[in-house]
Amino acid sequence: MINELKSVPEPTLRRLPVYLHYLKDIYKAGKSEVSTTNIAGELKLDPTQVRKDLAYTGIAGKPKVGYDVEVLISTIEDFLNWNNLTDAFLVGVGNLGMAILGYNGFKKYGLNIIAAFDNDPAKIGREIHNVPVLPIEKLSDLIKRMHIHIGILTVPATEAQKITALMIQGGIEAIWNFAPASLKVPEEIVVENAGFTTSLAVLTRKLAEKLK
Amino acid sequence: MINELKSVPEPTLRRLPVYLHYLKDIYKAGKSEVSTTNIAGELKLDPTQVRKDLAYTGIAGKPKVGYDVEVLISTIEDFLNWNNLTDAFLVGVGNLGMAILGYNGFKKYGLNIIAAFDNDPAKIGREIHNVPVLPIEKLSDLIKRMHIHIGILTVPATEAQKITALMIQGGIEAIWNFAPASLKVPEEIVVENAGFTTSLAVLTRKLAEKLK
User: Which domains does chain A show, CATH number per domain?
Assistant: First the structure.
């Protein structure tokens, strides 16, 4: 696919899963074709924006009819690399870590959490939602030996940088950061801050704009 | 403040909490002044971008010296409305709902979760992290009577639209949606999709771009 290596704007990446949800809904409801105008109308977005976003995935639309829903779904999933399962480690088995381990839908999105790490002796050795909890001391070494690409960080802010260093030492490629902390990492490491605060900033500001 | 009503681009809103984390870090470390060049350098962003983002908050920088760190922190917090506590209801006391109830840092961000709702009789009547769990049937009525502005949605995707309808019926203003579903809401309702999938899309695609 020509576009496979192209860097995509983040706002586009953030909208693609929203399109996916919508497309799966209408596919389940029996619809087989959809136009950008339909998508834009339903999701209250600009049709030009939708067309541009979808163009990044490399899909070709038919004039008038639009897209084949099934093809569009799998094209977006391929583009997001959700059809390849990537192994991941999770560090920090607190409330949020457990919620993530308990969410069994991640495989649909290409994420396969194969081990969790914590420093609490009461948790180490246990299995949580079928994922074994191992001691932090083993983190770097296992990332290296198992060629793990994704580290999920669900530790308190105060521990975040320390664990990040251990992940990088092991050779992690990408960190999904749920800790409310800004991580210092070498340029080549992908960091996606999934912290509640980023999303909450959008919510509280928009609400303030609306109510004032 | 002149900019208080101005609509802000979402990418800017998403970066503001990242600046905040960094500013709080250096403030704790004893730094009292900071320039956009410092911020941009540390966070690997374009200095012009940082300057533009901060300009939205209405803060004035001093040439050469930059900003007073403490003033900048409180200006961003004001701008995000994080210095006013807003009451919120949470619906869906599963793993994720519990993680959110257990995260006691939300008050720092202006969010005060005062009740949770579920349809599981084993949960109703209990208190989870000091928040009472009430039956779903009371949701609409209590939103109305207590003038609740924010609804946090942590139910499964299949329940999301139904609960959204109940929230809107009660008069909710903003929905923080953690369910992997696209919600249909009237134009005036603020919806922020905090779903894992949005963030995961950015992570998996960037990793794919990097590894290919």
Answer: 2-79 (1.10.10.10), 86-198 (3.40.50.720)
